[in-house]
Request: fold
Amino acid sequence: MNYQTDFSKFSMIRNHVSLTMILFFSGFLFMGLHAQTTVSGTVTSASDNMPLPGVSVIDANNPTTGVQADFDGNFTITLDDGSTSLRFSYIGFKAVVVPVNNQSTINVSLEEDVANLDEV
Reply:
């Protein structure tokens, strides 16, 4: 009788531990399902159509998410679902905010900000 009671307690504890572990690890499976969008493109100068390296590309809805354009003006940024626009900024050029609208490629031309350059 005593062995049977101990075995049933052990079995019950084992079942609870197993269920807890299954629930805990199944949470990690759903983390990968978080919707994200990858947007890429090129940033150029509006005056001569030359690529602009080092342009800051920032998620306008989440300023902690951002990248810089490479040497050829190319960028790739991964946005959380719900991000609606990107902000492009570069020293000596006017900042531009562009809506994403479910696009995977966005090419942007930045105009020089002559007024700010004259102040320097």
Observations:
- The two ends are 92 Å apart (CA to CA).
- The domain at 36-119 is CATH 2.60.40.1120 (Immunoglobulin-like).
- The beta strands are 36-45, 56-59, 66-68, 74-80, 85-89, 96-99, 108-110.
- The mean pLDDT is 83.
